[in-house]
Amino acid sequence: MTNNSQSRLLIIDDEAQIRKLLSVALHAHHFETLEASNGEEGILMASTDHPDLIVLDLGLPDGSGINVLKLIREWSEVPIIILTVKEREEDKILALESGADDYVTKPFGMGELIARIRVALRHTAKAEEKSVLDFGRLLIDLSRRVVLVNGNPIKFTPTEYELLRLLATHAGRVMTHRQLLKQVWGGQMINTDSNYLRVYIGHIRKKIEVTPTQPKMILTEPGVGYRFVE
């Protein structure tokens, strides 16, 4: 997948006006679109038409979008971006931990959604594990567990390195507090206060950010988690 014209997007939303708006905007950016008006139809189209990305509304007439998300995740790793009118942090966290790659809250800016779609597609295109992650001034050599900033090696503790590696290998995606705690520290840490995680993120930012108090690479998603920006 090297350009938008090769990308087929499935829109699962019960509002015809939203589907039309999205289709027109996505076509203008040279994406191909498919439309489903309910969860059952969306699951069928996801399995038969093999879209490159799914835009999924959480509020569907025949059930929860979360259930649709979970069912698709049983057999597919296709990127899924959630559309929701719900602003509660709990809803965003549930969607992300159920397998969503990202979320956009209605009403949303089309420019923001297009940007999120492009990031998700780019991440999928590079999903095969690389031995070196190159983000310009930051380079991470996964095979040697070496981190370079502006060509200079930077010392990381094992925990700091694992956090950075996890965020960087999922660049563009929101990683929730629970996901980070579970994958870095194990199941015994998943109920730990997020302040514990915040301390480690602070240490990492001091080592890789130009201005740690105004981070550009590791962004905070308030109440939800963190996003590594490429």
Automatic annotation (TrEMBL):
<keyword id="KW-0804">Transcription</keyword>
<keyword id="KW-0238">DNA-binding</keyword>
<feature type="DNA-binding region" description="OmpR/PhoB-type">
    <location>
        <begin position="130"/>
        <end position="230"/>
    </location>
</feature>
<dbReference type="Pfam" id="PF00072">
    <property type="entry name" value="Response_reg"/>
</dbReference>
<dbReference type="InterPro" id="IPR036388">
    <property type="entry name" value="WH-like_DNA-bd_sf"/>
</dbReference>
<dbReference type="InterPro" id="IPR039420">
    <property type="entry name" value="WalR-like"/>
</dbReference>
<dbReference type="InterPro" id="IPR001789">
    <property type="entry name" value="Sig_transdc_resp-reg_receiver"/>
</dbReference>
<keyword id="KW-0597">Phosphoprotein</keyword>
<keyword id="KW-0902">Two-component regulatory system</keyword>
<dbReference type="InterPro" id="IPR011006">
    <property type="entry name" value="CheY-like_superfamily"/>
</dbReference>
<dbReference type="Pfam" id="PF00486">
    <property type="entry name" value="Trans_reg_C"/>
</dbReference>
<protein>
    <submittedName>
        <fullName>Response regulator</fullName>
    </submittedName>
</protein>
<dbReference type="InterPro" id="IPR001867">
    <property type="entry name" value="OmpR/PhoB-type_DNA-bd"/>
</dbReference>
<feature type="domain" description="Response regulatory">
    <location>
        <begin position="8"/>
        <end position="121"/>
    </location>
</feature>
<feature type="domain" description="OmpR/PhoB-type">
    <location>
        <begin position="130"/>
        <end position="230"/>
    </location>
</feature>
<feature type="modified residue" description="4-aspartylphosphate">
    <location>
        <position position="57"/>
    </location>
</feature>
<keyword id="KW-0805">Transcription regulation</keyword>
